[in-house]
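Lecture notes, continued. The same structure-token format from the folding unit now serves as the input rather than the output. Read the line below as a description of shape only.
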């Protein structure tokens, strides 16, 4: 049952309850909303129409869903959250274990973006910088961040079947990309096999908030010989330990 909050702005209170109800039920009809929340039919209808017009809700086949504007709000909230400081220890742990450059990234519109970085101690460096944007279909970080998003989000970002080619290893069709995202969800991590830049490989895994939602990702990357096939499973274990460390910090 959705907790009822009462303030001096009843319209906002109702809208907030509607958002929570829809999120909990993965979408809901008009009848389910006003009955489930014990709201007046007439004012609920007008409120839903206003929320759809403002992009806070979207309507499809008789059901209401949260609007994609919430993704934008969420991304901006992440940037304002002190996640960069919380990520320092996990990133240093991962860097020390892999001896590779490690990054924290989040979704930013139609790309991924680096929020934090620790350099590799190696003389051979993969060029990167804070604020750098990465492809969502060819980078491990981008694939991880999009893997747990609704399928509609993927379709909105990639309306065409053919995807931009970055290297000879890039995933080039949306069908193959969706299969890749399914694999990432199942195994819990992503691999960029020189798909974004020639001879540069990368591993990434998700970071979760208190509600189990993916809000960021951690990656480790290097040139191919720095991440040999026989060490990938070892690096994955270090990566998952780092993401668990950060997720636990966020939840505490």
């Amino acid at each position: 049952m959705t907790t009822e909050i009462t303030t001096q702005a009843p319209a906002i209170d109702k809208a907030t309850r509607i958002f929570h109800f829809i999120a909990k039920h993965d979408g809901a009809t008009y009848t389910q909303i006003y009955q489930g929340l014990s709201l007046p039919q007439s004012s609920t209808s007008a409120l839903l129409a206003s929320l759809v017009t403002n992009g806070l809700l979207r309507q499809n086949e008789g059901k209401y869903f949260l609007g994609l504007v919430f993704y934008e709000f969420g991304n901006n909230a992440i940037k304002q959250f002190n996640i960069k400081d919380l990520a320092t220890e996990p990133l240093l742990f991962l860097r020390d274990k892999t001896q590779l450059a490690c990054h924290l990234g989040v979704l930013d519109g139609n790309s991924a973006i680096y929020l934090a970085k620790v350099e590799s101690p190696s003389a051979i460096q993969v060029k990167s910088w804070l604020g750098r944007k990465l492809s969502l279909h060819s980078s491990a970080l981008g694939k991880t961040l999009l893997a747990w998003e609704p399928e509609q989000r993927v379709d909105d970002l990639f309306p065409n079947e053919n995807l931009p080619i970055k290297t000879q290893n890039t995933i080039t069709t949306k069908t193959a990309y969706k299969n890749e995202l399914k694999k990432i969800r199942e195994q819990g991590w992503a691999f960029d096999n020189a798909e974004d830049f020639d001879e540069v490989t990368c591993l990434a895994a998700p970071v979760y908030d208190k509600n189990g939602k993916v809000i960021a990702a951690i990656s480790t990357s290097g040139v191919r010989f720095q991440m040999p096939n026989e060490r990938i499973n070892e690096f994955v274990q270090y990566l998952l330990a780092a993401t668990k460390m950060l997720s636990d910090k966020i939840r505490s």
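Point for the exam: The beta strands are 28-29, 57-60, 63-66, 101-108, 111-118, 133-134, 190-193, 200-208, 214-223.
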